[in-house]
Design brief:
single chain; 400 residues; alpha+beta; Creatine Amidinohydrolase, Chain A, domain 1; Creatine Amidinohydrolase; 6-stranded mixed β-sheet; 5-stranded antiparallel β-sheet; 11 helices
Amino acid sequence: MPANIERARRLLAEAGVDFVLSATLENSYYLSGIWNFGQEIFPHDDQFYVLAPASDVTAGVVVISAGMADLAVEAYRSITDVVTFGGFVRAAPDAAPLTEKESFVKAVTIDRPPAGSAFDALVQAFAVMGCTKGVVAVDERGPDRDLVNRLRAAFPGIKFVAGTNLFRKIRMVKTPAEVEFMISALRANEAGIRAVCAAAATGVTERELQLAYRQGVLAAGGFPGICLLRFGRGMALGQVTPGEDELRPGDYIFMDVGATYKGYRSDIGRVAAYGEPSKKLRDLQRASLAGQSTAIEMMRPGMMPGTIFDAAVKAVRQAGIPHYERHHVGHGIGIEWYDAPSISPGVTTPLETGMVFEVETPYYELGFGGAFNEDTVVIQDEGAQILTELDRGLLIVPVQ
């Protein structure tokens, strides 16, 4: 399983926490191995919890709606129990032989009828875990924003504290299994970029290349996410939906794209010139790459993100963009697109072995477009290891 159990145990002990309660998709997935897409469909309403002991955060009780209970067959084998709630009907005729998975779902949704509400099920989970006292860190960002107050009223003998930052701190350092999932997401993401370059031709539209990207990711076993793809000067408005602009010789393709594999993310970017790039594009890309390379070379355990940020911005300025400004030059990544810490001014969380970052020094210029490279690195004892396999320079696609 990917969760960093030892790190969680140490950090929770330091914080004086006895149990953790997740309420968001990302944190509940981290504790249980269940990707409850119900929280993607109904992000403001669907409730999904895991109550786990600090001694082993993968040995908790899952609280999930009866309708999504079949997803619990994918839970870690260390999960203690599954408690369901709500109305969802599954039939189980006595004469029908059941598989192991079908028997499991029958046991948690039919043999033991679901609780009337998510909170009722959560109360049951506390009983299963024997949690009647001590300190519980609650992921306070879930759909029920009054959850902490309701828990305090129901369990006066327990101290409930905010836990979102604790979850983020635990998840900052990835296990080898998590890194492998992220590499798989990265390879699918790179396949999408290669598919764009292969499909680039005079007259093709931004929307058509967006489709090529998504098909490339899917063919490589990933799931496509963000796809910012614009031509030329459109890069400066890169978050605008790709449209019907047609690719012409001398244009370039901006890509800031993301893919997912088993819940883990990849977020990388490139610029691909269609035909011979202009001197300005080459110069801007060279300057941007100089800053990114400086950041990567400095990334090792103990370094402060703020120090790396300052050096990267300075390098871009010295390499050819003297007016360069930026709010960050990278961010952690994992189950969330933006994990802590970011490589930003003033951030004093030191880098640790096992952290994974997307490193970027983009430049956006209205009237021209800009320059962009974003790559994935993992922090090793001796420094940053680049995980991206794509060429880090300006990509050039021949005109056809």
